[in-house]
């Protein structure tokens, strides 16, 4: 009887000891990563600029200028300049031409822009296709697609390209301004020349 009691006590002690050795695992807390906030780019009001460079004399001397009034419409919301500007349209009153030379400005208005079929506006649309930036430009009543280079640095988006006014049927306007500035467009060789080639540049700031 005594042996049975000792055996029962040993079994009870062993069972109690095993229970104490059982480990209770702490519940695993689920963590969720915060989704980064999507920030849309916004065009800085009145930051759109358009510059141009024309050329005179056979030495191709540059004459620079700009337009002080540009209307930009049909922009969208997006995280990149390409998304914001895709399909955006622009219009430029030619009366806003500016070269920092009032006499030259008046000659351009009278002897160049007034000779064009559309004597008030230059218009266009910007698109991004297959990695290219394309301006669909309307000048002198003619619409042409012009490939341009583009870049986005320091919150400034810029495009640069070259147009040939002959492609827009504007040779009469080129000849008109050359006649009006005949002596001024003479080089060392005595030849008066106004080039049909014009470099164009546009930019807009984002915030």
UniProtKB/TrEMBL annotation:
Domain (Lipid/polyisoprenoid-binding YceI-like) ranges: 43-172
Protein name: Lipid/polyisoprenoid-binding YceI-like domain-containing protein
Xref: InterPro entries: Lipid/polyisoprenoid-bd_YceI, TTHA0802/YceI-like_sf
SUPFAM superfamilies to which the protein is assigned, alphabetical: YceI-like
Domain of life: Bacteria
Originating organism: Flavobacterium sediminis
């Amino acid at each position: 009887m005594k042996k049975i009691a000792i055996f029962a006590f040993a079994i009870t002690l062993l069972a109690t000891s095993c229970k104490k050795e059982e480990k209770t695992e702490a519940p695993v807390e689920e963590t969720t990563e915060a989704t980064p906030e999507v920030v849309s780019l916004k065009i800085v009001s009145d930051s759109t600029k358009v510059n141009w460079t024309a050329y005179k004399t056979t030495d191709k001397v540059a004459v620079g200028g700009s337009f002080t009034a540009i209307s930009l419409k049909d922009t969208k919301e997006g995280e990149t300049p390409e998304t914001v500007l895709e399909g955006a349209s622009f219009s430029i009153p030619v009366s806003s031409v500016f070269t920092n030379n009032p006499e030259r400005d008046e000659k351009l208005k009278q002897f160049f822009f007034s000779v064009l079929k559309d004597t008030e506006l230059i218009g266009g649309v910007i698109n991004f296709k297959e990695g290219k930036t394309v301006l669909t430009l309307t000048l002198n009543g003619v619409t042409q697609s012009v490939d341009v280079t583009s870049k986005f640095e320091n919150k400034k988006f810029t495009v640069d390209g070259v147009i040939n006014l002959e492609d827009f049927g504007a040779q009469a306007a080129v000849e008109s301004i050359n006649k009006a500035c005949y002596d001024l467009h003479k080089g060392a060789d005595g030849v008066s020349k106004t080039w049909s080639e014009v470099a164009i540049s546009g930019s807009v700031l984002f915030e």
